[in-house]
Each structure stands twice: as C-alpha cells, then as structure tokens.
Amino acid sequence: MCGIVGYIGKREAEPILVEGLRRLEYRGYDSAGIATLTGPHLHLRKRAGRSADLARFLGEKPAPGHHGISHTRWATHGPANDTNAHPHLSTDGSIAVVHNGVIENYSALKRQLQAEGIVFYSETDTEVIAHLVEQHYKGDLVEAVRAVLNLLKGTYGIAVVSTNHPDLLVGARLGSPLVVGIGEEENFVASDPTALMGNTQRVVYLQDNQMCVLRPGNWHILDANHARIDATVHRIDWDPGDAEKGDFEHHMLKEIYEQPEALENAMRGRLSDEDCSAHFGGLNLDACALRRAERFIFTACGTSYHAALVGEYLFEEFARIPVEVEYASELRYRNPPMERNTIVLAITQSGETADTLAALRESKRKGHHTLALCNVVSSTIARETDGGVYLHAGPEIGVASTKAFSNQVAVLTMLALYMGRMRNLSSLQGSRMIKEIRALPDIVRRTLQCHDQVKEIAQKYHQVSNMLYLGRQYLFPAALEGALKLKEISYIHAEGYPAAEMKHGPIALVDENTPSVFLIPSGGVADKVMSNLEEIKARGGPVIAIAPEGDDELAKHVLSRADEVVFVPQMPDYLQPLVAVVPLQLLAYHIALLRGCDVDKPRNLAKSVTVE
Ligand code: AGP
Predict the structure, then answer these.
(1) Which ranges of 258-374 would DSSP assign to H, the alpha helix?
(2) Dihedral, 125, 131, 135, 138 alpha carbons, nearest 10
(3) Residue range 303-322, pLDDT digits in tens
C-alpha cells in the first residue's frame, strides 16, 4: 500500500528518495511522485505507473536539492493518474504533502475550503491537508501542521516540506506507520524501515499522535501535547541483502525456496526436549493464566486467516481449547459475547494490516488479553499487543505471502504443543510431536523437488478460466490458500472448498475446462476425499492430485483416477498443510508467469493493507 520516503541532509535527495520508493514497491502502488526543494523553488514530479516511470521522467527533468519527500500511491480517492499522485501542493505552491491512510472527513473539509474559494486539482483526500496547512501557516510549519492534525478524522502518516523552511521536514502519524531514520548530518522519514536500508540502521518508530521534526543535523519527537519526548532509537538488524532477489527471477520464488530455512528460524530455541514442549519468550502470560484460558479467538486477514484456520484444528486437537477464527474486518465491528478468559490472537505478516490492528485494539478495549504472531519486528501490532511471538520468516517482499504462511502455521503448531502439554498431552506425545516438527524443514526441502513437475502441469492448465481447490480437515485451509495464491497472482478465478461441500453447489461449475486440485491426506478421510474425486471425474472435470508418498494402495488408486499426480512427502495429518502448500504455491507462480502477470506486484493488491 502507499509508501512515504523523506530526506533532509547534504546529499542529493532525488536518488535517495527514488531508491527508497523502489524498496517500497513490494507494498503495492499505482503511481509515484517526488518533491524536492532548492531555496524558494519546489520541484514536483509525478507519474502514474511504476517508480521506474517516475525515474525515467526524472531522467528528463531532474528534481534537484538536498531535501524532499516522495510517495508511492495506492489509489483510494480518485483513479491512478499523474494528478492524483502525491505529493500534493498548497495553492501558493509553497507546501508539499505526502500522505498514507484515509482522511474520513475530507469531503466536509473540502467543501468548506471550496466555499472559501480554494480550487482543488486532484480527487484525493490528501489535498485538503496541503491547503489547510497553508491556511494555518503563520511562520511556524510545525505549529501549522499540528493545528491541521486536530481537524483531521481518519488515519494518516504524513510528511510535509515548505519552501519557507529549506532546512525542515515535518512528519506525523495516526494509525499509519511512520519511522524516522537517523544518520550523520542527515535524517530520513519513511513509512517502512525497508525504505531506509543502505542509508541508516538507526530508527525511531513514531507512535500514534506523535510528530517528528527533522533538520539535517538534529531531530526530535513531539507528543500529542506538543512536548518533546525521549524517543527510543532501535537498531534494524535485517541484512539489506535479504530483501534482494539474489539468483531468483522473482521475490515470490525466492521466498518459496526460503521456506525450509525460515521454518528452522521459527523453531530455533523454541522446542524443549526436557519439557517435551515448546517455549516462547514474549507471551507475557504465565502458565497459570494460560491454563485458565477458556477460549481463543484467532483473527486475521487473507493468507494469515488461512493459517489461523489450520491453527483452529491444531488447538482443538492438541490443546483441547475451543477456538473461533474471525476475519479481522468482521470482528472489529461485531460485538460477539466473549467469556472473560478469552484470549485474542492476531495473526499477521506485516503487523500493519488496518483491520487486524483494529480488531486487536477493540479486543484490548474490552479487557481481553491479546497476543499476536507477527513477522515484521516492531510493527504496530507487535508493539501494541500484550504479548506475542515473532515468526522469524525474514523479509517477505512478494505480495503473495508464502514463507510467512508456513511460519505462521509452524508457530501455531508449537503453540498448540505448548498449550497441549499444559493440559492433556503426555510427555511421550509431546516428544513425538517435537520429533515430527523438527523434521519439517528437511521435508519441505524435499517437497521443493516437485518444482519441475509442477511447472509442466502449469503449462497444461494455464489457459483455464476457473479452478477448484478441494481438501478436508487440515488440508481444507491449505485448499483455500492454494486458491487465493492462484487468483491473486494469475487472475484466474479459483475457489477453495471442503472437498465434500463441493456437492452442495460448486460441482455445477465442473466441466472439462474446470480443473480441480485435490489435496489427498494420508489417513483418516483419504477414502472420503477419493470418493469426492470420483464425483468430479464422473462429470468430466480434470483432476490434479497432490498426494502423499508411501501408501502404495492409495498411490495406485490416485494414479488410476487423476489426470496429474504430484507426490509429496508424507507427514502426520497436522503437518501436511506445510507440505501440500508448496506445490500449490509453485503452481500459482508458474501459471501466473505463463499468463504474463507481474508475479511480485499483482494488479490492485498491496503487500500490507493499511486502509480499512
Ligand atoms: C496474501 O498472499 C495476501 N497478499 C494477503 O491476503 C495478506 O495475507 C493479508 O493482506 C494479510 O496481511 P498480513 O498478514 O500482513 O496481516
């Protein structure tokens, strides 16, 4: 979603601002812009399209100066065009503003300004901020911005510069992340620390209602009362190399291949042979409080929601605790009766998803203990939750989540083991689970060997218009995830269903042009899934089966009925989603490539959805 980068110092601002935008590309956007200052002159350059389009434009018409702001916009108010791209200027052209978030009362503010004779150039909500700052400006830019913030309803991360202040950059945050980067005789602001990689490792995360005031040689943070505060400076320990593609053609493919290592990182130091259990440092809940928990609510969006669904099966099987899984966008406005001892667990890669954050805040407001599984260190959700567990998947840049999903499921599995050991799992059962969980990275490494075969299958099916993904029990959420992967990057319509539910409607879609991907389990309901497969075959639907190795009888049966069979290593049912999801990720990847889609930056999507 939208990205902000600002710079003030002694170097040329343009390359820093453009490189920062390039680093934020993965978040998803549809236009980009920059404004720099040289004395009283403001240089504004904006382009619909990619940051490369903006860079080309800057090649023809550079933006000079040591001070400026830049932005990638994901359209909310008005289409993606040059005019609606940020920065936006005040009428006199002295003030430039970039903004992430949504100003909910912008139309009332706009009407009021128009009645006073102000002409608007764009359809954005952001432009009101530029005009209001000009109106409130009486020689003090910081004071003018502060006054305007009091008028805004909604969410914002903003950066503001003015030709009247060649040595000043002002930022503010409410509900949309902003981070200050501290350098030597130079300072930065960005919506995501990734933008600052290569420039500084020292950052300050702004809290809601705080402002930052940056000059080349100094910086300070103001709280809601306009008082200076002592801010904590964090050190970013991610290696900038992590965010590059290396030898891979796309971030998504690199991240699919990083899954074994990511899983190792998620497990490191968390499995205890001595206790036959798992350990987590940051839950901030003692064993007694956890034992008292009567119910969990897992809340998340998108892929993280699918991980939560796997977690529901895990918690109910191993910890014997009732779990409800709620879309965060629904939970935030519902008012479900929740017992006192309900723990709310938010699951999120970015830690910035607006709906998940709102659901977490609402749960806290009601007095529930909140936990979060987060990948991005020091993200807003990571900071606001009462306790939590980091996923340690490393930076996930591809918009389509892959390794974060695997680590979410792996952490949920270890949490289920931990909770189970407090309740009803014996030490023997605990030890067996530890052994099985530890085998995962190598099993996933082995699963990746299906790559070439999946690539061939993609060749055969990449022109279809619809696909079904069917699985049962633990493999049902994996089916949902496979369908989501396909639709988000290849734009093929795909639906995930519990395999048996297909008879209650979706089977009407089945014909010779609608393939079904069947996720076959190893035991339990394998026969039932095979019957569902037969029902599809009987109606002429092509079948791609993802089946476990090691059961000759089952293998023979699947081979005789399915059009394609990808054999994957066999794991106990509760770990099979982590294996089955690998061919599904690769299938979506190759189908998208063959259809000429931009795999890492699919249309209309954003890596972290920071608006409602
Ligand atoms: C996954 O491929 C998607 N891009 C999307 O569904 C994502 O999982 C969702 O927006 C939630 O994001 P989060 O995990 O950062 O909260």
Answers:
(1) 259-267, 287-292, 302-314, 328-331, 354-365
(2) 110
(3) 999 999 999 999 999 999 99
Position 50 pLDDT exceeds 60? yes
Q: Is the pLDDT assigned to residue 60 strictly greater than 70? A: yes
The neighbour count for residue 292, using CB atoms within 10 Å, is 12
For 395-414, how does the pLDDT look when each residue is reduced to its tens digit (9 = 90+)? 898 999 999 999 999 999 99
- Could you report the per-residue pLDDT of 572-588, keeping only the tens digit for each? 999 999 999 999 999 99
The C-alpha atoms of residue 58 and residue 171 are separated, in whole angstroms, by 25
CA distance 488 to 483: 9
Burial 191-202 (b: 16+ CB within 10 A, else e): bbbbbbbebbbe
Q: Which parts of 470-608 fold into alpha helices (H)?
A: 475-490, 526-537, 552-561, 576-594
Which tokens belong to 231? 């801010």
* Ligand 1 interacting residues, C-beta cut-off 6 A: 301-304, 348-350, 353, 356, 399-401, 488, 605, 608-609
Q: Which atom of ligand 1 is nearest the CA belonging to 353?
A: 16
Which helix (H) or strand (E) element contains residue 174? strand 169-174
Kindly report whether the global pTM for this prediction surpasses the value 0.85: no
468 neighbors 516 (Cβ within 8 angstroms): yes
Q: How far is CA 239 from CA 198, 212, 373, 512, in A?
A: 9, 26, 22, 48
| CA 269 – ligand 1 centroid, Å | 27
Q: What is the pLDDT of residue 605?
A: 82
Instruction: Tell me the pairing of strands 67-73 and 3-8.
Output: antiparallel
Determine the atom of ligand 1 nearest the C-alpha atom of 400: 2
Q: 401, 487, 489, 605: which to mutate for ligand 1, most atoms within 8 A of CB?
A: 401
- CA–CA distance, 400 with 251 (Å, rounded to integer): 9
Atom from ligand 1 closest to the CA of residue 485: 2
The Å distance, Cα 397 to ligand 1 centre, comes to: 12
pLDDT given for residue 239 in this prediction: 59
Residue length of the chain: 612
For the residues 418-423, what does the mean pLDDT come to? 94
Q: Is 537 among the residues known to form the active site?
A: no
Nearest CA to ligand 1 atom 6: 302
How many CA atoms within 13 Å lie on the side-chain side of 18?
21
